[in-house]
């Protein structure tokens, strides 16, 4: 199976598992979509850790050579790598990869990034993860331009995450940046000393999962609203959600250390 999943204590692990580089295939795109949907539907799951199997790669991206070898030139022009099997896919038709990116979710995802994080793997790390933990050997890049393929940088949302000059450098040169550079640019939250970021990501996930689930849902919803551009309308919606969540939780749901009457204790 190209996707492995397990759950414990409110934390779901979603593992890309396809060879040493965890290359992406249409089957893996489909299974990732289904794993994310199952995570959202699982009432006991509060946070997910997305990672690649092993420490060599989070994912080195789509298996471009394999896909191109299986297609005749006209098909190569028409079909996307994430296409559902049997579809004749034009540019404006969805494939599994698009389904993954457009899936609406209300639960946090942490990416544990070891080794290579390239191409569609980079896109998934950027677009699916709310928090990113990298190992000291992680490398991030968009090599598609070297293959004459454009659009991956825009799909990743890199211009919204990085300073413009750095985003342009990564997008137009096709050259990767290392973990420390990614941290300096705030592409990742932390860089671990070892070559496996999973333990730190799991520890952070357990911390998040320990919070009241209604508060987590409300926080995710309001943070999503704050990304939109209609500031006044969004503020009203955020305040309404905040008040509803607080009324639903009740005073007993507030930890003692955060209550006003606990000051000085």
Any key phrases for this structure?
12 helices, 43% helix, 10 strands, 15% strand, six-stranded mixed β-sheet, globular, 265 residues
Summarize the SSE layout with pairings:
Layout: E1 3-8, E2 11-16, H1 26-41, E3 47-52, E4 57-59, H2 64-69, H3 73-78, H4 96-102, E5 109-113, E6 116-118, H5 119-128, E7 131-134, E8 139-141, H6 152-156, H7 158-161, H8 164-173, E9 177-178, H9 179-184, E10 190-191, H10 198-209, H11 213-226, H12 231-249
Parallel strand pairs: 2-3, 3-5, 4-6, 5-7, 6-8, 7-10
Antiparallel strand pairs: 1-2, 8-9
Give an account of the 3D structure.
By secondary structure, the protein is an alpha/beta fold. It is built from 12 helices and 10 strands. The chain has helices at 26-41, 64-69, 73-78, 96-102, 119-128, 152-156, 158-161, 164-173, 179-184, 198-209, 213-226, 231-249, and strands at 3-8, 11-16, 47-52, 57-59, 109-113, 116-118, 131-134, 139-141, 177-178, 190-191. The strands form 2 sheets. Strands 1-2-3-5-7-10 form a 6-stranded mixed beta sheet, sandwiched between helices. α1 (26-41) links the parallel β2 and β3. α1 packs parallel to α4 and α11 packs antiparallel against α12 (231-249). The chain is globular, with a radius of gyration of 20 Å. Residues 71-80, 88-94 and 251-260 have low confidence and may be disordered.
